[in-house]
Design goal:
Structural class: mainly beta
CATH superfamily of the largest domain: YVTN repeat-like/Quinoprotein amine dehydrogenase
Shape: globular
Radius of gyration: 20 Å
CATH class of the largest domain: Mainly Beta
Helix content: under 10%
Mean pLDDT: 85
Number of helices: 0
Largest sheet: 4 strands, antiparallel
Strand order of the largest sheet: 1-28-27-26
């Protein structure tokens, strides 16, 4: 399923782009069904898939925006059904077995990670995996199986089973707030990092709920969307309640940047929403493949994968991609801790290179209430303290801008 690094804020509105924008077909050099995509930025990313469990070299990586791909193998003949990467070195794959495959050297070597104690028959096969950073990750599978790791997969802890449905996808907006989806339009949610889960009842999705949820995406701990055949479910309260919106076609993958959303599915149809998923229209009909995943590392660049090696690249009109070397480090903005907070809280972020940094805090009306950083900073990990003594109770947002990288997260003051 689709795992990604971009989490956007509610209050930072993006104008819906009306000028002509196209999806360009990219030659991947493979005929595999590409189930998964994970792009770190506009030029660096991973795609993975397979064909009937008989494929070995089924992980592809690009560092030049799709001009070329390097092929990797976990060493096993399998289909990659779930894939998550936090940078160009560290990635994890779920291939419908009882093992998670992990690489820390960019795909050259893969180490087997077996969640939980030694499994016994009948096996609960793992279908998806999601990592928030190099340490915190989750995997889900058959019969409500969920595991969590806090050390990059070296050890895993099994969550108490709360359902017998098969889980197909998992997504975390923060280290604590996560969701899993599966058969019969079922959604599970957690707010304690996956230690415990509750089952959420979703509405009948135009009679298509038996197909199950194939993908989840959350902008923050409140706003999220779920892809299901012929519809997209949306929630504004963290998944407690859901509203179905018809896309009139299969929905396999879903992704949002602010209110601008994309859904892909059967028969080459690409749907787009400019109002947070309330309404959907056909943006493009490529008509030659089933589409499985969609990934936007930023609002101007997107990727869609599909059957038979299908890969499409999206560029907002007038934008260009510049390939820059990427090592193990990438731009990142951590969730503040503690959150909610009373007097003070700490914000950490990482710079892969020297950049001019702006770190500001806004209220829910988009008004700036604090400027924490406004200077050139060197590459590395940085830490800033926010003093909340002058802030009233409520929700705020902190926004990091470093060069072209922009990231926003929610912060809560509770006195």
């Amino acid at each position: 399923m689709i795992k990604h690094l971009l989490i956007a804020s509610v209050f930072l509105l993006v104008t819906f782009v009306s000028q002509a924008q196209t999806w360009e077909k990219i030659n991947t050099g493979t005929t595999l069904n590409l189930w998964c995509s994970c792009f770190i930025d506009s030029t660096h990313g991973w795609i993975a898939g397979g064909t009937g469990g008989t494929t070995k070299n089924n992980i592809l990586k690009t560092t030049d925006g799709g001009l070329s791909f390097t092929t990797y193998s976990t060493g096993y003949y399998s289909d990659i059904s779930g894939f998550s990467a936090v940078d160009m070195n560290n990635a994890w794959a779920a291939d419908g077995s009882i093992i998670i495959r992990h690489t820390s050297d960019g795909g050259t070597t893969w180490i087997n990670q077996t969640p939980g104690p030694s499994p016994t028959y009948p096996y609960n096969l793992l279908r998806d995996v999601f990592f928030k950073d190099v340490n915190n990750g989750w995997t889900v599978g058959d019969n409500g199986t969920i595991y969590r790791t806090k050390d990059g997969g070296t050890s895993w802890v099994k969550a108490p089973t709360v359902t017998s449905i098969n889980l197909k996808t998992v997504f975390f907006a923060t280290i604590n707030d996560g969701w899993a989806g599966g058969d019969f339009a079922s959604v599970l949610r957690t707010n304690d990092g996956g230690a415990s889960w509750t089952v959420v009842v979703t509405p009948t999705a135009f009679g298509r709920d038996t197909y199950g949820i194939s993908d989840l995406f959350f902008a923050d701990a409140s706003r999220g969307w779920a892809a299901i055949s012929g519809a997209v479910l949306r929630t504004g309260d963290g998944g407690n309640t859901w509203i179905p919106e018809s896309t009139s076609d299969g929905s396999n993958g879903i992704f949002f940047t602010n209110d601008d959303g994309w859904a892909v599915g059967s028969f080459g149809v690409i749907f787009r929403s400019g109002d947070g998923g309330v309404t959907w229209t056909i943006h493009t009909d490529i008509g030659d493949a089933f589409l499985y995943s969609v990934s936007f590392p930023d609002a101007d660049h997107g990727w869609i994968t599909g059957s038979g090696g299908t890969l499409y690249q999206y560029k907002k009109q007038g934008t260009t991609s510049v390939s820059e070397p990427v090592t193990g480090q990438v731009f990142s903005l951590d969730q503040n801790y503690p959150n909610p907070f009373f007097l003070s809280t700490t914000i950490q972020y990482q710079l892969p290179r020297s950049s001019f940094v702006k770190l500001t805090v806004y209220n829910i009306f988009g008004q700036q209430v604090a400027k924490l950083v406004n200077e050139q900073q060197q590459a590395g990990k940085h830490e800033v303290e926010l003093n909340g003594s002058q802030l009233t109770n409520g929700t705020y947002f902190y926004r990091l801008q470093a060069g072209e990288y922009v990231k926003t997260k929610k912060i809560v003051v509770k006195k």
